């Protein structure tokens, strides 16, 4: 029940933010990995760095770096269908990861207030040559909150893209 309430709140806040965002002409994608950013430059730079650090930590199996990005009450849902993960579960699974490279693109930020931002992007994952699946494209939404002056990832949701 709690999870449904959290999801409903996120969906409602997202709808409110989208309703207030003025329509803008589409921009052409440049050489930057996140060419379609839609928030102020300072916030854009913060989240580009945070998301890159997150995927570098996953790729390098860097438990300390990954832990520093996640809120203590973090919840994540991945495409494997195994359900929700807490921060501890996500950190414990890190050693079994097999991401050999990644490409990020399509970053969109939806500020939900001074201390919360909804982040949307896609990632193309590359796995080692002997893996059953070599590539995977995933659509990602993340809810980031500012706590103690630092941005922490509170919720992560990924959906497989064909």
What does this structure look like?
The chain is of the alpha+beta class and 162 residues long. The chain contains 4 helices and 6 strands, in the order αααββαββββ. A hairpin with a 2-residue loop joins strand 5 and strand 6.
Features:
disordered N terminus; 162 residues; alpha+beta; globular
Short structural description:
The protein is of the alpha+beta class and 162 residues long. It contains four helices and six strands; from the N terminus they run αααββαββββ. It has a six-stranded mixed sheet with strand order 2-1-6-5-4-3, sandwiched between helices.
Write the layout of secondary structure elements.
Layout lengths: L1 H19 L20 H20 L2 H7 E8 L6 E3 H7 L7 E13 L2 E11 L8 E13 L2 E12 L1
Parallel strand pairs: 1-6
Antiparallel strand pairs: 1-2, 3-4, 4-5, 5-6
Helix pairs in contact: 2-3
* Percent strand: 35-45%
* Shape assignment: globular
How large, in whole angstroms, is the Cα Rg?
16 Å
What's the number of helices? 4
End-to-end separation:
31 Å
Whole-number mean pLDDT: 83
User: What order do the strands of the largest sheet run in, or round the barrel if closed?
Assistant: 2-1-6-5-4-3
- The structural class is alpha+beta
Q: Give me the strand/helix succession.
A: HHHEEHEEEE
Total strand segments: 6
Largest sheet features:
6 strands, mixed
- Helix share bin: 25-40%
Note poorly predicted spans: 3-38
